[in-house]
Specification:
The protein is α+β, with helices and mostly antiparallel strands and 247 residues long. The protein has one domain. It has 8 helices and 9 strands. It has a 6-stranded antiparallel beta barrel. A 3-stranded antiparallel sheet has the order 3-2-7. A hairpin with a 2-residue loop joins strand 2 and strand 3. Helix 5 crosses helix 7. The longest helix is centred in the last third of the chain and has 22 residues. The chain starts with a helix and ends with a helix. The relative contact order is 0.20.
């Protein structure tokens, strides 16, 4: 009986790990907040001038990773600056930690999203379009900027933004990217969010229509399949040891 339980738990663990390589479809639905706004950004020697930026709505289908709980409508933000989103593309779903491989970057993005969602800035802003664009700039700044001293500035380091009104607070209308980053650094209130990336698997700047996307899900106390399988293995092993001792 114990051996059977261990084999079952091991099968669950292997199955959940294998699912990480499967792909699903992301369908573009339109802007998440009515419209986009043009931005003027520079990344090292690459410029992106006058292009639209902001969050958009997508629908995910066919993803079985992470318990299959990342299907349906989501709000997404671009990770790449120089690429463009396709209307319907096949993507792999990865954790942000696996995608970036940089704990500091993932932590900064996590704080930013937790602050933006937890303090409800996107819904309380007088101009949701501009707030969404400012959030996109803040995400890009974390992704591309390697100068920690300029993390919240957007006018130093590899990533720069030229529109002053998008960088700083404009009355009570919305928080600029600088303010979002600054407020997020000290944010610790619940709720917290798990970050994921819809990855195209194609090299950056290889061609249009392959832009990787950042999405998130509020953290839950329900364990993922891999965690559940590990727990089952632990319980089975502990039970086996206990029975041997009693015998």
């Amino acid at each position: 009986m114990t051996a059977s339980l261990v084999r079952t738990a091991a099968a669950l663990l292997l199955g959940s790990t294998a699912m990480l390589s499967q792909a699903g479809t992301m369908t573009y639905l339109g802007p998440a907040h009515n419209n986009f706004n043009n931005v003027n950004v520079t990344i090292s020697d690459h410029s992106y001038k006058g292009g639209p930026a902001g969050g958009f709505s997508v629908n995910l289908a066919g993803f079985t990773e992470f318990g299959g709980t990342l299907n349906g409508p989501f709000e997404a933000y671009c990770i790449d600056v120089t690429e463009f989103i396709d209307t319907s593309s096949s993507y792999r779903l990865l954790s942000a930690a696996a995608y970036f491989g940089d704990a500091n970057k993932v932590s900064a993005l996590g704080k930013l999203i937790s602050y933006a969602q937890g303090s409800n800035v996107l819904n309380t802003a007088g101009d949701q379009d501009m707030q969404s664009t400012a959030l996109q700039l803040a995400i890009w700044n974390i992704v591309y900027d390697t100068d920690s001293a300029a993390t919240a500035a957007l006018d130093g380091g590899p990533f720069k933004e030229g529109a002053t009104t998008l960088k700083s607070t404009v009355g009570s209308v919305y928080l600029g990217a600088h303010d979002l980053l600054t407020q997020a650094q000290s944010w610790s209130a619940a709720p917290s969010y798990d970050l994921f990336v819809l990855a195209s698997g194609r090299p950056t700047e290889s061609r249009q229509g392959q832009q990787d996307q950042l999405i998130w899900r509020q953290q839950s106390t329900v364990p993922e399949p891999a965690s559940l399988a590990l727990s089952l293995l632990g319980l089975a092993a502990a039970g086996a040891v206990s029975r041997r001792r009693r015998a």
